[in-house]
Every structure is written in C-alpha cells, then in structure tokens.
Amino acid sequence: MSSGGHGVTRSKRDLPPMHYTLKIESFSLLLKTKVEKYESDVFEAGGYTWRLCLYPNGNTKGKGKGFVSLYLQIENTSNLAHRWKVTTEFKLFVFDQINDKYLTVRESDASVKSFHEKKTEQGFDQLLSLKTFNDASNGYLFNDCCVFGAEIFVIKPTGKWELLSMVKKPANGSLTWKIKDFSKLDRKSYLSKAFTAGGRSWRIDVSPEGNGDGKGNSLSVFLELIDGDELPPQKTVWAEYKLRVLDQRHGKHVEEKMSCWYTSSSHTLGFPKFMPLGDLREVSKGYVRSDTLIVEAEILTLSVSKLFS
C-alpha cells in the first residue's frame, strides 16, 4: 500500500537529493493537459533503475485527493532474477524555492520498503496538500515552477552472518595436569598440554614461585587462550571457569572461579595469588604428594562464534 498522511515525517534540509531531481517549468500548462500522472526519465541508484511518478492533482485511486502524490517506481524488472526483491530506505523531496530548502518526506520510523513483482511502486499519496503546494508564499510552486527529487538507499544483504552461542559445559572442556618432580622445578612458569573446547585451544599456566602480586608468596595459576594474541581487533571470547589444586590427602581442594572476556591483549587470565606457598609446602595438607602437584581447569561456560556465508 502507498503511504497516506499517517506515519510520515517531514523536515527541511539544505542538501539537494542525492540521486535525482525533476524540475517542472510552466507547471500550469502541464495541468491544462489534464495529465493524471507524469513519469520522469529513468535514473540509476544502488545498482537498479528507477523513475519518479508524479500525480499533480493527487492519486484519487489511493488517498491522494486534495494532495500532490509522488512515488518511486522500479524499472527494467525483466532483467532481474525470478521472484526478485529489492529492499530500500528512500526519501522524496519538494524544493522550497524561497528559503532554498528541501522538504524531505519519509516514513516516520525509517522503515524499509520492499519492491517486488507485485509491488513496483512505493511512495506517498499525501506528499503535500494542494492548498500548501499552490500557495506561492510557501515556495513550492513559485513563478509557475516546482522541483521534486528522490534519494534511495538499497539494502543489499552480504550473505554473511554470525552465530554467537553461550555454551555451558563445552565438550572436552576440562584438563587434569599432574606436575611431577614439583620440588625440582626452577623455571618462572610451566605450561600444560593443550586441550580444545569451543573450537579454541587452552592450557594451564602455573608459576611455582608466584607471578605478579603473588611473586615470592603464592602459587600463581592461570588459564591461557592459546594464540589469543592473534584475535582480530575488538574480537572477544567469554569464559567462565574453575581452577583448582587437588588436596591428595583430605580431598579439601583449593578452588577459584573466574568469569572474564579474553582479548588479543589479555589472553592469559587467572590468579596471581591462587594459594599461599606456605600451605602448598605443608606436607600434612596434602597438596604435593610423592613430589607431584595436581592442577585442574574446568570450563563452565564459553562463548562460541561461528561465521557463515
């Protein structure tokens, strides 16, 4: 259906229409021809061919009685694919020649309009009332001359889309790491083997003598997103997980929970002060047994992003 007077926004601007302008001189002589509908020449916008359709005395087959009616019509549709559809946002214009402003008419909610085989024309039954248009003091019909225009933005789907899923307890989302000969470790940090969850690779990072705020006083434990430094700018990965050190004697494990976004600049996250070194080294507490420390990582929730085209 063509738009009537409801749901239409009218405003004025300095810029002329981007795609097409129709200027009519000696407008009164055009009316004497008793033309019901005037069709402009064709023009191109957004890869398609269009024309303006003007009803100087209103489209009485619609709701245009007492108004100027103006529409946008798509052309050369025989060259388009079967069951074609062209989705647009468009604006139509009338030039105020006194104030050098363009009256811009569009849908109030800036909604898109689709052109297809059964709807090749869209526009406004009630572009402007004839009373307002014919009053020379308003500048729309001045010295028997008037100017109309069109601006069209064609919305072309790229065919590419993204699916973001928040996955609870992803498959293979945990790792148990037995660190043997723990008392003999002398490097700053150690990395577990990798495990894959949510299509990405992860590993545990342990600093036996602490790292950052935990240096010299705590065991530091982190979960690293492998190749996280290669994430595209603005790309993030959400992870909620638990890190734990097993109590091999009493079953009173030390466990911490983390929820965070991984980025290219922050892809090793966890706890610099996971547990005090004093507790870790206390034999009776059972965290190190037979010179073996057992560390676990368990991913609870993970964001998984997939691209389709």
Oligomer: single chain
CATH topology (fold) name of the largest domain? Apoptosis, Tumor Necrosis Factor Receptor Associated Protein 2, Chain A
* The CATH fourth-level homologous superfamily of the largest domain: Apoptosis, Tumor Necrosis Factor Receptor Associated Protein 2, Chain A
Q: Helical residue percent? A: under 10%
Distance between the termini: 33 Å
What structural category do the secondary elements indicate? Answer: mainly beta
Q: What is Rg? A: 35 Å
**Shape descriptor:** rod-shaped
Mean pLDDT: 94
Q: Which strand-content bin applies to the residues?
A: over 45%
Task: Point out poorly predicted stretches.
Answer: 1-5
The CATH architecture classification of the largest domain is Sandwich
Number of helices: 3
Q: What's the CATH class of the largest domain, please?
A: Mainly Beta
Task: Tell me what the structure shows.
- By secondary structure, this protein is mostly beta strands.
- The chain has two domains: 8-155, Apoptosis, Tumor Necrosis Factor Receptor Associated Protein 2, Chain A (Sandwich), CATH 2.60.210.10; 162-308, Apoptosis, Tumor Necrosis Factor Receptor Associated Protein 2, Chain A, CATH 2.60.210.
- It has helices spanning 27-32, 130-134, 277-281, and strands spanning 8-13, 20-25, 38-39, 43-45, 48-55, 67-75, 85-96, 101-107, 113-116, 121-129, 145-155, 161-168, 174-179, 190-191, 195-197, 200-207, 218-225, 237-245, 254-262, 268-276, 288-289, 292-308.
- Strands 1, 2, 7, 8, 9 and 11 form a six-stranded antiparallel β-sheet that branches.
- The longest helix has 6 residues, at 27-32.
- The chain is rod-shaped and about 105 Å long.
- Residues 1-5 have low confidence and may be disordered.
- Pfam families: MATH_2.
- Residues 17-152, 172-299 form the MATH domain.
- It comes from Populus deltoides.
- This is MATH domain-containing protein.
